[in-house]
Amino acid sequence: MVQKLKPPAAANQPKRRGRPRAYEPDVALGKALDLFRKQGFAATSLDDLSEATGMNRPSLYGAFGDKRELYIKSYQRYREDARASMVAIFREEMPVRERLARIYACALNIYLSGETGPRGCFTVVTAASEAVGDPDIRAMVLEGLSELDKAFASCFRRAKEKGELPESADPAVLAQLASATIHTIAIRSRARVPRKELEAIVKGAIDVMVGAKGNPAVVPAKAGIHNHRE
Hints:
Blueprint: H1 25-39, H2 46-53, H3 57-64, H4 67-91, H5 96-111, H6 122-130, H7 135-161, H8 171-190, H9 195-210
C-alpha cells in the first residue's frame, strides 16, 4: 500500500507577509512637495495629489492625513532639505564674502529648480500666503525666518570679530538685509528672471553688506532694524 505524503507542518511553512506597499512614502512625499511648490495649497486638489503620488485617496489619508497635513509635512520636508544643503556653508571657516556668495548660489540652485520651470521658495511663494489664515503654518514660517536671521547674524558676528567688518557694523541689521536678499531672489526666480540678473542682484547686495572688494562696508550701528527674536 502506497502511503500518502503528509504536507509539511504549518510551523515549518514560511509566514505569508502582508501585501507590500505599492509606493515609497518618502518618494510620494517628494512628489507632493513638488506639486505644492508649483501650484500652492488652494490650487492643488486631492485628485492632483493622487495622480502625482500614484496613491488613491484612502492611501493618501492613511499615510499622510488630510490635504492640510500633507501640505505641512511637505513644507517640513522642504525646510529640512534646504537646511541640509546650506548647513555646511554656514559652519565652515571662510571669508564672509565667500560665505555669502556660496549661500546665495545654493539658494538659486534650489529656487531655479523644477522640471517645468523655476519654483522659487516654498516659504515665500506659498507658505506665506497660507500663514494668513493658519496659525500652525504661520508659526512654521516665523520660525523659518527667525532661523535664517540668526544664521546670518552669526556669520556677521564672526566676520566682525575677525576684522572683516567695521566696528560700526550691526550683525542683526546685516542679517535682515541678507535675509531680505534671499526673499527677493526667491520671488524673482519664480517670475523666471534670468540667473545672470539674479546673480547681479546678489553681488550688489553683498557689496552693500560687506563692502565692495577693497572698500570696507560702512554700516551704522543700531540702525533701527533689530531682530527681536535673536
